[in-house]
Amino acid sequence: MESFVIDSIDLRLLQALQDDASRTNQQLAALVHVSPPTCLRRVQKLRAAGLIEREVALLSPDRLAPLLGHGLQAVVEVSMDRQDAQSLDAFEARVVEDDAVQQCYRVSPGPDFVLIVGARDMPDYLALAQRLFTQDANVRNVKAFFSLKRAKFQPRLPLPAAVP
Known about the structure:
InterPro entries: ArsR-like_HTH, AsnC-type_HTH_dom, Dimeric_a/b-barrel, Tscrpt_reg_AsnC-like, Tscrpt_reg_AsnC/Lrp_C, WH-like_DNA-bd_sf, WH_DNA-bd_sf
Organism: Variovorax dokdonensis
Number of strands: 4
Order of helices and strands: HHHHEHEEHE
Protein name: Lrp/AsnC family transcriptional regulator
Largest sheet: 4 strands, antiparallel
Domain HTH asnC-type: 6-73
Distance between the termini: 23 Å
Helix content: 40-55%
Keywords: DNA-binding, Transcription, Transcription regulation
């Protein structure tokens, strides 16, 4: 793999894209003080290097609620009976394929996994729990925490202003 060197312009581009990836190339170039061709070339290079994994639209749950219902958001801790690599990998592979699982983290110490899941309502969550946890003989304990209010949601990586 080709070595990749990141500089302060790249960091500014990444930061600006984390803030709002819908900006045009011209807007992004003006924001980080580079020419549009330089901006485009650098963003393409960042994508090719895999530093920009993907770009998505973040939907507003509050504005969608009148149309679709509020739904349930839960943080779920899962502890396994066996923690060997094969057992953990098998559980992880199964849960990441489920559309209700929005995020999956293998953690330590404490539970083996922390999941962020979404469900339409409590019966939908029950179906998810049956599907992912109850039918898995290796799941020892599940603890779900249901979100009452989302105070902050900012899916971004903290970036330095300059390369150390």
